[in-house]
Amino acid sequence: MLSIALLIASTGFSQKIKLISGSLSSVKGEDVLEIQFTYDNMRVGKMTEEDYVRDKRAEADKKDGDGGDRWHNAWLADRDNRFEPKFIELFNKYAAKADIIVDQYREDTKYIMVVNTYFIEPGFNVGISSKPAFVNMKISFVERSNPDRPVAVFDIIQARGSTAFDLGHRVQESYALAGKKFGAAMKKFLK
Fold first, then answer.
1. Cβ contact 120:171 at 8 Å
2. Given its phi and psi angles, is residue 22 left (phi above 0), alpha (psi -120 to 50 degrees) or beta?
3. What is the tens place of the pLDDT at every residue in 21-59?
4. pTM for this predicted structure
5. Is-contact 150 190, C-beta < 8 A?
6. pLDDT confidence tier of residue 5, bands split at 50, 70 and 90
7. pLDDT at 12 over 50
8. Phi, psi angle pair for 134, to nearest 5°
9. Measuring CA to CA, how many Å separate 175 from each of 64, 119, 143?
10. Interhelix angle for 167-189 vs 84-95, to 10°?
11. Which of 119, 134, 137, 139 is nearest to 171 (CA)?
């Protein structure tokens, strides 16, 4: 009975990948895409990112006079140092089966994969209680010569991270799962 309950509970939090529009037929045959990450109109929990950052900075300043600056710098640095590299690593590992990879530093590709994180649930871990992080992302494939008209748009919903004590690690694991699952799905999407 407990196994069934756990199975039902875990499926309620499973990641979903939805094709919103277009197709990847024009991308088929490309072996490398440039990848770009954006955070446009992002919400964090029930707040705008600006409100979340303001509250967390104030909270950190109360604990330590200039802790808010350190917290904010870490929040921004985690994107470059943890979230994005983990997404790329796992995407490339699994998308290689579809003969395609992404690279942040390839400005000579015909197509760009734009990953916009529009929601982060940061989760929490206070020892006796925890909640995993998760992210929602919109992934658009655009032709470099016409970036305003995506050839395909996907929505990744509830890429679930961990319940680690460290916020950055919880969210990093969300990016890892999103990269892994989306990379694995590329073979199907490129048919």
1. yes
2. left
3. 999 999 999 999 999 999 999 999 999 999 999 999 999
4. 0.90
5. no
6. very low
7. no
8. -155, 160
9. 30, 12, 24
10. 30
11. 134
Q: Is the Cβ–Cβ distance between 133 and 121 less than 8 Å?
A: yes
User: The tokens of 154 are what?
Assistant: 């996907």
CB of 158 closer than 8 Å to CB of 136: yes
Q: Number of helices (H) and strands (E) in the chain: give both, helices first.
A: 5, 10
Give the H/E segment covering residue 32.
Answer: strand 32-38
The class (CATH top level) of 15-189 is alpha beta
Structure tokens at 127: 């020892």
At 81 the three-state DSSP class reads helix
35 or 63, which is more confident? 35
139 close to 156: Cβ distance less than 8 angstroms: yes
How deeply is 170 buried, as exposed, middle or buried, from its count of CB atoms within 10 A (0-12, 13-18, 19+)? Answer: buried
pLDDT in tens, 171-187: 999 999 999 999 999 99
DSSP E strand boundaries for 56-188: 101-103, 111-121, 124-125, 130-131, 134-143, 146-160
Q: How long, in residues, is the chain? A: 191
**Contact, 134 vs 171, CB < 8 A?**
no
